[in-house]
Amino acid sequence: MKLSISVALTSAVAVLAAPAPMPTPPGIPTASSARTQLAGLTVAVAGSGTGYSRDLFPTWDAISGNCNAREFVLKRDGQNVVVNNACESQSGTWISPYDNASFTTASSLDIDHMVPLKNAWISGASSWTTAQREALANDVSRPQLWAVSASANRSKGDRSPDQWKPPLTSFYCTYAKSWIDVKSFYQLTITSAEKTALSSMLDTC
C-alpha cells in the first residue's frame, strides 16, 4: 500500500512539474510530406519588394464570435486562457515556441506570420487580389499564425529561413514544416538559398 501511494505521489509530482506543451497550430505536415511539398515549390529570384505595404494585407479579421484572428490565436496557443466578452485575453500562460520564453500577460506576445507578409509579397503575393492577401494574413487553418515573444518576432522581421532561424534549435523541424506548408498551399516561390536552409532544417526532424 505504501509503495502504491509513493508511486502515485511521484506520478502526480511529475505531472505537475511537466512543462506546458508547445502550441501546435493545425495543418503542420509530417517531415516526409514537407519534403514532398518542398520539392514541388518553384525556385525563383525574390521580387524587389517595390509597392509593398502591410496595409495591402488586411489583418485581424473576425474568426469566431467576438474573437478576431489575434485573439483567436492567443486563446488557442495559451494554457488556461481567460477572456472577457470581447475575447480579449485577461490571463493565461503562453510558451513562445521560437525561444521557449514563458509569459502570463498576452500583451507581451506578438502574433507572428510564419511566412512574413513582405516575404509573401516578394514571392508571388504582389500579383494577388486584396482578398487573397487577407486570407493569408488571417489564416488560422494552417500553421501561418503563431503567438510568440515580441523579441523573437521582431528579430525575425521579414526574413526567410536562410536569413533567420528560431533561437530554439529544437523547433527547427516544426518551423521548416510550417513554412513549407504555407508556401505550398499559397503557391509562393522560394529562393535557392531558402530551399537549402529549409532542407537542412528538415534534417533535424
Automatic annotation (TrEMBL):
Pfam families given in the database record: GmrSD_C
GmrSD restriction endonucleases C-terminal domain mapped to chain residues: 97-199
Keywords: Signal
Secretion signal, residue range per the UniProt entry: 1-17
Keyword Glycoprotein: no
UniProt xrefs under InterPro entries: GmrSD_C
Name of the protein this chain belongs to: GmrSD restriction endonucleases C-terminal domain-containing protein
Originating species: Hypocrea virens (strain Gv29-8 / FGSC 10586)
